[in-house]
Structures are given as structure tokens and as C-alpha cells.
Specification:
The structure is a single chain. The chain has a two-stranded antiparallel ribbon with strand order 1-2. It has one domain (5-97). Helix content is 29%, strand content 12%. The protein has helices spanning 40-43, 48-51, 66-80, 93-97; strands at 5-10, 13-18. The protein is α+β, with helices and mostly antiparallel strands. The longest helix has 15 residues, at 66-80.
């Protein structure tokens, strides 16, 4: 954050906190698809004041691929229907809870 502070206003309480961490935000483009012919600000319905708070912007695109999307969704459904074995996990539940 460029100002090193972030302000909140909820229930008539105004707070200004020091920002000592990185903030990651995500947004979906207008109309659901990113338009390469438009600039970043035109693709997202965010106010300029919000966009100005961030130092770096990274656009991650999910390119349309019908076959890949079908295979991913089929695998997820098959795992939840117990028709296919899930991928072996790297960490145990206890290791994740530490």
C-alpha cells in the first residue's frame, strides 16, 4: 500500500490502521471476460481511488479451452461421486493444522 495505512468505516466507527503486510485483491472483469483491447481500469468496475491504493497489478487470465475445462470439471465431479480416486495429498491434516 502506498500510504502505509488503511482506513475502515463500519457502524459509525472510523479506524485507521498501519499496513505492515501485502494486500492481495481479486476482481472479475466487467461482463465476465477480460477485453484485451481495453486498459485495466476499463475492464474492472473499480473506482480510481481504490486502484490508486495498490502499487502493483497482475492480470491472470484463464484462456478459454473447452476440452481442458471439461476435463477439470469431470475430474472434480467424479472425485465427489467417489467414482475416481483423488490425487495423493502432500500434507496430512495434522500438518495443515499446525
Amino acid at each position: 500500500m502506498e500510504k502505509q495505512k488503511i482506513s475502515f468505516a463500519k457502524a459509525r466507527i472510523k479506524v485507521s490502521l498501519n499496513a505492515r503486510i501485502s494486500i492481495v485483491a481479486a476482481a472479475n472483469p466487467i461482463y465476465g471476460t477480460y477485453d484485451h483491447s481495453k486498459r485495466l481500469k476499463a475492464n474492472f468496475a473499480l473506482a480510481a481511488t481504490i486502484l490508486s491504493c495498490f502499487d502493483l497489478y497482475f492480470v491472470i487470465l484463464d484462456e478459454y479451452n473447452e476440452l481442458a475445462d471439461y476435463n477439470v470439471s469431470k475430474h472434480i465431479l467424479d472425485v465427489h461421486r467417489c467414482e475416481e480416486v483423488a490425487i495423493d495429498v502432500v500434507f496430512t491434516r495434522q500438518e495443515l493444522q499446525l
